[in-house]
Design brief:
The structure holds three protein chains of three kinds. Chain A is about 20% helix and about 20% strand. By secondary structure, chain A is α+β, with helices and mostly antiparallel strands. In chain A, α2 packs antiparallel against α3. The radius of gyration of chain A is 25 Å and the shape is flat. Chain B is α+β, with helices and mostly antiparallel strands. Chain B has eleven helices and four strands; from the N terminus they run ααααααααβααβββα. By secondary structure, chain C is α/β, with parallel strands linked by helices. Chain C is about 40% helix and about 15% strand. Chain C is built from 24 helices and 16 strands. In chain C, the strands form four sheets. Chain C has a five-stranded mixed beta sheet with strand order 2-1-3-4-5, with helices on one face. In chain C, strands 13-12-16-14-15 form a five-stranded mixed beta sheet, covered by helices on one side. Classes of the chains: A alpha+beta, B alpha+beta, C alpha/beta. Chains A and C meet through β4 and α2 of A and α19, α20 and α21 of C.
Amino acid sequence: MVSLKINGRKIKAAEGTTILQAARANDIEIPTLCSNDALKPYGACRLCVVEIGKNGRVTVDTSCTYPVSEGLEVHTNTPRIREARKMILELHLARCPNVQIVQELAAEYGVTESAQQMGKDNEYCILCGLCVRACNDVVKAGAIQFAGRGLGKIVDSPFSKTADDCIACGSCAFICPTGIIKKNDLFSTALCTPDGCDQTGPQREILNWKVEHKLKSCKKCGNPYAPEPHLEKVKREKNLPNEFFDICPSCRQYPVVDPDKCLGCGGCMENCPCGALELEDKGGYDKKAQLYPQNCTACHSCELICPMQAIS
Amino acid sequence: MSKSTRMKPGAKKSSQKKASSPATAQAPQAAAPGSWAGSSKAMFELMIKEVPESLQDVFRVKLMDILGQKAKGGAYQEAQVVEIVNEIVPEPFKSNILKGFATMGGVDISLVEGIVASYPGGQESVPAILHALKAKFGHVPEEALRVVSQKKNVFMSTLYRLVTSFTAFPTDSPRKYTVSVCDGTGCHLKGSASMLKKLEEKAASPDADINLEKVRCLGCCDLSPAVLVNGEVYSGDDAHAKISEMLGE
Amino acid sequence: MKQDKPLDLNAIQKKGLGMLAPTRARITVGMATCGLAEGAGKIFEALKYEIKKQKAKADLVVVGCNGLCYAEPIVEVICPGKPRITYGRVSVERVPDLVASVAKGGVVKDLALMRMDRLTAEGGASIKYAGTKVPKDAAALKECGKLDFFKKQMKLISKNAGTVSPEQVEEYCALGGYQALLKAVTSMSPDEVIREVTVSKLRGRGGAGFPAGFKLQACRQAAGDAKYIVANGSEGDPEIGMHRSFLESDPHAVIEGMAIAGYAVGASEGYIYLNDRYQVAHERLTRAIEGAEALGLIGSNIAGSGFSFSLRVKRGGGAYVCGEETALLNALEGSFGEPRPRPPYPAESGLFNKPTVVNNLETMATFPAIIAGGGKRYAGIGTPGSTGTKIVALSGHVARSCWVEVPLGMEIGEIIKTFGGGVANGKKIKGFQAGGPSGGILPAKLLKIKLDYDRLAKEGSLLGSGGLVVMDEDTDLLEMAKFFTDFFADESCGKCSICREGTKRLQQIITDVMEGQGTSEHIALVKRLASALSDTGACALGKTAAVPFISVLNHFPQVIEGKLLRKKA
């Protein structure tokens, strides 16, 4: 743990964390546009800049990337910082005047319109890179990336064609703060020609990357629930049989542990490929198995291995 | 044979009922029936050429029919032509045609593989490979990048970003002539901007097969504003005359 | 490899001396990019043909650039026992005369620029070209050491340029090359090497001016199972390519310097990141590395010391931003040209996240001189805050485009006058730029300031890579400010919003002002932009993107004020 000061307050933070993390853990607000807890910091939007005093010198740097260290003196809301943030927001507003999140953040700093002398565009992508980072670093599909540099920079699929590596998981659309990434789930589509109508089943399309993929439907409830290439990836990586994907997560039966039969041997926990089982104190003599359904893929390994048949 | 290294986005068939989106976004083109996607037309022609001349007309009709069935009213796809070759065309024509497909667009895949193999390592070897590809082909073709992506286990999207963010790796086929105008600070002070404008007018004409580029410091400040025409340095007006000569004016 | 064969530097030196001052005549052609652009290649071919035709007893050698770029193509003729004659602006038609002068013994008067009687090299041998009696013809020429152009320089690291063949390592050794490296690895400890560099107070020659000794020390102390030395040869500034000339003339200086740095921090691998357009430099550097390895001067177990060092050249992709050290490291890793957040700094976590020393080529090339002559002596040159010498390239509206090496602290105006011959065409100087686009444009009244890191920083400019661009009275300064701003906008990597969007809006604002549509609001906006850029830019490109326009605003207010629209009440 290191000790540092933020806005005059003494704060303790774990080594290896950033000023932004330390601030947020202590209810100190710092605005961000390109930051996300699930992703490594990038430092694109520059909104999170703070004044950092170290060994008597003051610098301005992004709190999302700056590691905490002993004795730092950080100020998050000085006039100098506010002026910088105002300018950054004005520039964002000049580029993306109709994006809600930009308008809201700018309003917090008293900026309702960008300076007339700046000129104006009508973009919707703020180039925060969240979609790119999610696709490459978390999903690890690598379907999209930035392309070009400087003023011509955009987020694109290779050669602006259909993103072949896209598994249509929709993470990009989910994480995009402006809503420019268009993901549509279509229950059914039909291509009609003079020769007749060709029905295709449920599809997901992500328009920005020119991607269309079939959605797999649940054999039990009939609802489409996930894109096929996404399921392919999960199947490959978790080594699951095809049949596993016939049932959707809602219909899938999750194991139930009978605490009276459970010995607390931990065999289920060791055999669980997804870390969905833990041994916990339930107030009795031994620890008991506890299921965490959010990690569970209902593979039934635990049910098979339990020596007491305590799991069903 | 067509030299198409920059293919248009593959048009996918779709027409659906949904709420219209308010913001601008690139929607996939609804493909017109009977249109040829990518290099499919050139591939089809290559396939027909393999057939003995006297039978070409007959085969053309037959294979178009099969292609039409595969396309199901949408655009003809490259993959569909390949399917026809695999399913219907007998050897030795099949191998010849497939080999021809591999070298279409002027890219011999075996050459690319050779280059990639000579640069061991992971992603850190990619820039050197890109330079070598540019040296070999005059540019970095998309097909070559696919090979690099496979062999070096680097996302195609990463490679696309590398070639579009660094100026050293053009993806378009090179033009016949390259004219580089020095726009370094020294030459700029001596009038390279107006030289560039004059040359832009020349390069804009439809039969001028010129790649006009701005570069920084050719090292000949005495000849400012310096212009490199196909490897030789000229000074300002001399460059202008040389280019006129090149274009046969 | 050569680790078993003992390294006999004396023998190598002797061989090199025999090449530099042979018993036959030696004719050299200056074939760096500046020379080649002026036709030196054709001159070389013509000389080859003519030597054969006239059956002249002469060796024809490719050398680099001696800094007299304005007088290219340059040919030097060295006849045994006679002074070394330098000829300038040689044309193919005059080649037969030059070759004939070998046999005839005379001097081709109208092409001759100067003569050199003696070459003194530090730590190396002195070469006496002429005997005590100088032939009449040659005596009429000015002696090189007496010309202001050379007298006022202090060629500490560029002494070999234009003299040695870049690919003959023996010639480099003859003039003292690799002695410093051998001294370091056989008789000094790494800490002692770092101490010399620290005592020298050498500051990074690429732009930031960070103390080189501190960087070496930080890397030495950092933990890592591998360490790297990386030379920044991206030279992306749009002015004259002096580092290119340096590499094409004396690549071994950089190689030796990098090896010394490797020894100091414990790195056995080095990379030179080279501007992708520098083909000639690439070839010469690659062959120089091979030459040094072949003789065991670098490679494994150098001189039996146990220290091994190998290095490779990697070509860049054509991006100015990759001159920034962390963007450079990303590019070396095959990744995207955009800067990394700092801390951690490269000395701690650099190439492949290992401790790395990233230094400009010129900084690397200075290490041998510091080890050879001692850090204290180096610190005695220049000014207390800016020690040593600096390579400076003069271009723009200067009478003579050239590059020189001067002690820091020399007055900028004097540099322009002495070496550049003042402003071309008898015009008056309006302004000048130091250190590249980030240095902005400074007014003529500041010509009297010294070439010094802190002095230039005080004026809102910077020493940077050492380029000086002269702008005469007819220069449209606003247009130049736009030119530099366009440069930044073109080269911005686009990662951080302030630089990407800020440079775009700067372009629009400057265009408005140039077209007479600017108002005081435009100016107020630029000042706010400049402040935000400087504070929040992720790297030096973004941080200094507004400097060109702001410098014109501050130093030449009439240029802008005169164009602004007056708002009616």
